[in-house]
Amino acid sequence: MEPSDWWRTAAIYQVYPRSFADGNGDGVGDLAGIRARLPYLAELGVDAVWFNPWYPSPMADGGYDVADYRDVDPVFGTLEEAEKLIAEARDLGIRTVVDIVPNHVSDRHPWFRDALAAGPGSPERQLFHFREGRGEDGELPPNDWQSEFGGDAWTRIDDGHWYLHLFAAAQPDLNWDHPRVRSEHESILRFWFDRGAAGVRIDSAGLLAKDPVLPEVDPGAGVHPYVDRDDLHPIYRSWRAVADSYQPARVLIGEIWVPDTERFARYLRPDELHTAFNFDFLARPWDAEALRESVDTTLAAHAPVGAPATWVLCNHDVTRTATRYGRTDTRFDFAAKAFGIPTDRALGLRRARAAALLSLALPGSVYLYQGEELGLPEVEDLPLDRLQDPMHARSGGTDPGRDGCRVPLPWSGTEPPYGFGAGESWLPQPADWAGLTVEAQQRDPESMLALYRAALRIRRAGIGGDFAWLPAAPGVLAFERGDGFACVVNLSAAGAQPPAHRELLLASAPLRDGWLPPDTAVWLRRW
Ligand code: NOJ
């Protein structure tokens, strides 16, 4: 495989900069902290790092409200430090993927400020979706669209007009029919590619294009007014031309929540995006049939377009795997999030270990979200007055929000801040994380960190070749890759017998008389 094809098989680690490592001791993670910890990532054995947004931002949505796409927020550091970080990571063999947020800007972005100042009907307002309201005095929003975070997707301003925001009110949506919006984003891509970024992760990539009439959502219409519209494809074709103009070519990774796998795969045609996150797999319950079906539909949808599949278990938006798998309902569903769901943590961790071996053995690229390699649980008892996620606030307080998976990493020591920085961290860490620190797990050959390191090492040394299911008992997933490598995952309540093999490469839990106990996965070399 050409080195330029790295993205086809890469293990990509997601860093949430606020919560990775705090270099200056202000309680918030930063680029200095990340730079100091790059050797950790190299030792872990990942091929690339995707950084959540580090741009200047009022942080109304964790930095996904960008005020300047060509700089770094002072809380994280400077642009110069970002350039150094990219170069230092590259020296360690780690590529950098930056987060691009094209659907919306911050309400403090100069374009939006100018639009507010310029008034109704002005060219400045054309860059956004401003409309008059309905009702006698325009007191009703222009249509029924709902924010992804709950509540109306419209906010009214002093002159009586309304603007569209599919997320928080501080995130006005851009008008992608405007040529300036398009040229600006291509220039932003070049800005980061010129600084050595190997690729970009494209935020909310399925939402940019809107029906210009802004009609109400009609489930019977067949076409959604703002999700997965056909007009998105020309946008990504021109982005691909930008990415391909670099040497080596840069990589485009889409955040696309589109349930129809055939529609999803259209974004991955050879002249569009390279890959996109597999949210179907992420949302599946811990159930052999459900996961098997997801693998099958994923591979079947990707094959015709020649794109590699991706495998994702969690990220900064969803409940941590080690917690989700310890519940009665092991699916992920934004709508089902609630406080106080009973969780068996030991069971969740056991399954998360098995799921790690499953996802790392499947064909394609794989994402791991910081802390996943430590088996961190979702933190579900954060003080309510410390929660920052607009998803919590906009739900009227019923949705716990996404802060619970964004708690700063524990590095060392026996009490908060566990080597994350000095003093109190922006979200408090639990008192019982001493055993979960990197330091503690490095000493323990049975730890989650040891499992991930071993698995990534074996994967790098070569898990390749064609994928094929092997015969297996009900509730058991077994497949081979190429000649001789096999992965067996036992999701049943009974023991499972592995196929004949000459070497047990790795096990997520000890075998019993050669059999896999429930919720255990193994990697084998077959005869
Ligand atoms: C998806 C991001 O992953 C999420 O964190 C963010 O809130 C929304 N897009 C809006 O940018």
From TrEMBL:
Keywords of this entry: Glycosidase, Hydrolase
Keyword Hydrolase attributed: yes
Enzyme nomenclature, EC number: 3.2.1.20
Transmembrane segments: none
Molecular-function annotations in GO: alpha-1,4-glucosidase activity
CDD domains to which the protein is assigned, alphabetical: AmyAc_OligoGlu_TS (cd11332)
Domain Glycosyl hydrolase family 13 catalytic: 14-406
Entry coiled-coil feature ranges: none
SUPFAM superfamilies assigned: (Trans)glycosidases (SSF51445)
Domain of life: Bacteria
Family affiliation: Belongs to the glycosyl hydrolase 13 family.
Protein name as it appears in the record: Alpha-glucosidase
Organism whose genome encodes this protein: Kitasatospora paracochleata
